[in-house]
Amino acid sequence: MEFHLSSSTPSGLKDYLIQMLKRQITYRKLYALYHVSFNVYKGEVVGIIGTNGSGKSTILKIISGALKPTKGKVYVDKKKIQLLTLGTGFDVELTARENVYLNGSIIGYSRKFLDEHYDEIVEFAELQDFMEEKVKNFSSGMVSRLGFSIATAGDAAEILILDEVLSVGDEFFKKKSLKRVKEMIHGGSTVLMVSHSLQTILDNCSKVVWIEQGELRMIGEPKTVCEAYRSSKAEGE
Ligand SMILES: Nc1ncnc2c1ncn2[C@@H]1O[C@H](COP(=O)(O)OP(=O)(O)OP(=O)(O)O)[C@@H](O)[C@H]1O
User: Fold this and answer.
1) pTM, whole model, 2 decimals?
2) What's the average pLDDT block by block, 10 residues per block, for the chain (237 residues)?
């Protein structure tokens, strides 16, 4: 997966357009993923680990179809996928109620589904008294609680993709959300999850993929891969 990063720093959209028309914008290539290949079998719970910027979210986005790879192929039935990621698709100028519908429709829920699950979403997020407030007045914890609650409404799909959804809100909400995710994970879905918590990976996964700087470092049994990852970090690699 190749990204093109702009090397110039325009002061705004107008400046950007002027620089673009004058062909003053230069780009550098960034290989976010390079020659990464692995299989996920039905019923497996696969954890993806790696340091910040190693390419974990990019893999999940490619698999779920949110990003098209510049090279390579993903063989998956996209209709069966549910991608759970937090914080995308919120408009802070809208109320929490409006964001349930906005964010929900971006995730792929129908209006009917959201009408039917609205109360349950609000109740789980414990935001009953705040739904007519603009989201810009919410704390970050409140935003992620709402995001988590929307993302996990309804039944889990056959293929579940979780991007760091296990560290949401305060201690109490964390416990509650972990319980819900565990039910989803162990309810028979095939799961791909990214987490920085090795304990969460060890507790839940049957296989682990370690990505470092866009390349596949190791794949295999959780304990072996997590230990290798830990010791590489301890050695200050
Ligand atoms: N849309 C994009 N445009 C340009 N570069 C991107 C884009 N998305 C990701 N990148 C870059 O690709 C690399 C991998 O990013 P990615 O978000 O996949 O990492 P990650 O392993 O999920 O990181 P983290 O643990 O911090 O969440 C990073 O260098 C990032 O800056």
Assistant:
1) 0.79
2) 74 80 77 91 94 92 89 89 76 95 87 96 96 94 89 84 79 86 84 90 94 95 96 79
- Choose which residue among 31, 54, 70 to substitute to test ligand 1 binding: the one with the highest number of ligand atoms within 8 A of its C-beta: 54
CA 62 to CA 131: how far, in whole Å? 33
Residues in the chain: 237
61: its two tokens: 């986005």
Mutational test site, ligand 1, from 2, 3, 229, max ligand atoms within 8 Å of CB? 3
> Is the ipTM here above 0.90?
yes
Answer yes or no: do 24 and 78 share one domain: no
| Sole residue written with tokens 């987490």 | 195
Domain count, the chain: 2
Indicate if 84 and 155 belong to the same structural domain. Answer: yes
Pocket residues for ligand 1 (CB within 6 Å)? 3, 5, 30, 32, 50, 52-58
User: Do 194 and 87 have their domain in common?
Assistant: yes
117 in the same domain as 11: no
Domain that includes residue 8, residue range? 1-31
Distance CA 231, CA 153 (A): 38
Is residue 45 domain-shared with residue 109, that is, in the same domain? yes
**Does residue 150 contact residue 87 with C-beta atoms inside 8 Å?**
no
Name the residue at shortest CA distance from atom 17 of ligand 1: 57
